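User: Is it possible to get a 3D structure for a protein together with its bound compound? The compound here is D-ribose. I've pasted both below.
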Amino acid sequence: MRIAIASDHAAVAMKAELAQWLAELGHDVDDLGPNSTDSVDYPDFGYKLADHVASGKAERGIAICGTGIGISIAVNRNPGVRCGVVSEPLSAKLTREHNDANCIAMGARLIGIEMAKACVEAFLNTPFGGDRHVRRVDKLSNPQTSRQTA
Ligand code: RB5
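Assistant: Yes, that's possible. Here is the predicted structure of the complex:
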């Protein structure tokens, strides 16, 4: 699978470790930066990751910052992306099954590398559940239509 990964300065080390591990597992990894711990702004890298996934350059995206929250907000501003913030594998599994998430976000200051790997494994290996979830996921892409039904 082609997987894009991006972070801010708070998560460069976790990003590097995940990128290497994913490559060792046989995935094609697009590391979108940053490549040093110099301070950067997480929206810049969140938008870059979202554009990469929404345009089809990668099938899945992994976004990491200190908490996972800031970068997830940036990623989710792109309507072509559904990004769940996860800190354990059950959430990573359910955001695939229910939300057809094509990105996850994690907090490098909140979870360790082994937990991050467990989240990524669940994210990559769980299929979308389809069925009733299709209608709901479609509504995420069409907020104007959806507002008229509630
Ligand atoms: C950077 O200090 C920090 O604010 C960022 O990594 C993230 O936690 C924001 O949500």
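The chain has one domain: 2-149. Helices lie at 12-24, 42-54, 69-75, 89-97, 113-125, 132-141, 143-147.
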